[in-house]
Amino acid sequence: MVKNEIINKSTDLGFSQCGFAPCEPLENLRSFYNDFVLKKRFGALQYLERYAEPRLNPELLLPGAKTVICVTMNYHQPEQIPCNDNFFIAKYAYGYDYHRLIRERMDCLVDFMRSTFGDIIARAFVDSGNVLEKAWAQQCGIGWQGKNTLVINKSRGSFFFIGIILTDLVIKPDHPEANHCGECEQCVKACPTKALDTPYQLNIPRCISYLTIENRMEIQDDLKDKLNDRIYGCDICQDVCPYNRLPVTNTIPEFLPSAWLMTMRKKDWISLTEQQFDQYFTRSPLKRLGYQGLMKNIHANHPSQR
Ligand code: SF4
Ligand code: SF4
User: Is 234 helix (H, G, I), strand (E, B) or coil?
Assistant: First the structure.
């Protein structure tokens, strides 16, 4: 059966979950998305405004697509970077940049589908196209979008990457996952910048992940005071989520923190040279931020250097 063969291959490639949904326009999200754009909650991520229609209708990205396949890969590590006397980087950034690794494995999955099922069309996306990955993860039965806006799986939590494949193969769909947040508001209460004050809607310009990764402007002072040693990302709204109490870990070697990263402490970050940055972060997601961006975030956290 086509579906089982794809699931089995995805497991062989290290993916944790694999779900399927019909490739149809996400009409149920249209007013939500229009409201998001209207209220300009996207910060400097203007592409979210520009490419609204292909996001809502993926067939515009791959004419003839019949099925959306969603794969995930857990990234929570058995060993955490020590937090004493240290700056914080998001867990997903401990190892290699996931874009490349997941892309390579998704390309393997697409190659497998082509060699097994013949002359099909298929296209893979990892944070790289105009695809609403989180909405599709829910449609494919992987999890629901929680009040922290992340996709949560009841037994696996939310520490996973998401990849999407569009294909013209017709595959029996899974059931969309229901919302299981219930009365819980732990993420809303824990967010230091009040970026989740409207549950299920991230106020991007106030989110520390955005401020320390995507934002290229100076961080405003009232938000600097909320960083609390965060120099690349922020996992607070995931760490407090009850569904992450027992996170599923991944031991894919590329995602493990390097021995060097495990020894870094505040003074090492503050005195980091551009040469060291280039040497140690070549394959890291921090490379995208660049040396100047990283130092800007360190200085924003370190009052003596503001
Ligand atoms: S990542 Fe941090 S700042 Fe952003 S919404 Fe979650 S808790 Fe708030
Ligand atoms: S912390 Fe609670 S409200 Fe927030 S995403 Fe998790 S379950 Fe939902």
Answer: coil
Give me the residues paired with residue 89 across strands: 232
Q: Is the CB of 196 under 6 A from ligand 1?
A: yes
| CB of 213 closer than 6 angstroms to any ligand 1 atom | no
69-122 tens-digit pLDDT:
999 999 998 888 999 999 999 999 999 999 889 999 999 999 999 999 998 999
Contacts of 206 (CB under 8 A, 6+ apart): 193, 194, 195, 223
- Parse the chain into domains and list their residue ranges: 2-78+89-167, 186-244+260-305
Residue 240 Cα to ligand 2 middle (Å): 8
Residue 165 · residue 123 · CB < 8 Å:
yes
Residue nearest to ligand 1 atom 1, measured at CA:
234
127 as an active site residue: the answer is yes
Does this model's pTM top 0.90? My answer is yes
CB contact burial 71-103 (16+ within 10 A = b; e otherwise): bbbbbbbeeebeeeebbbbbbbbbbbbbeebbb
Which of 147, 236, 238 to probe ligand 2 with, by most ligand atoms within 8 A of CB?
Answer: 147
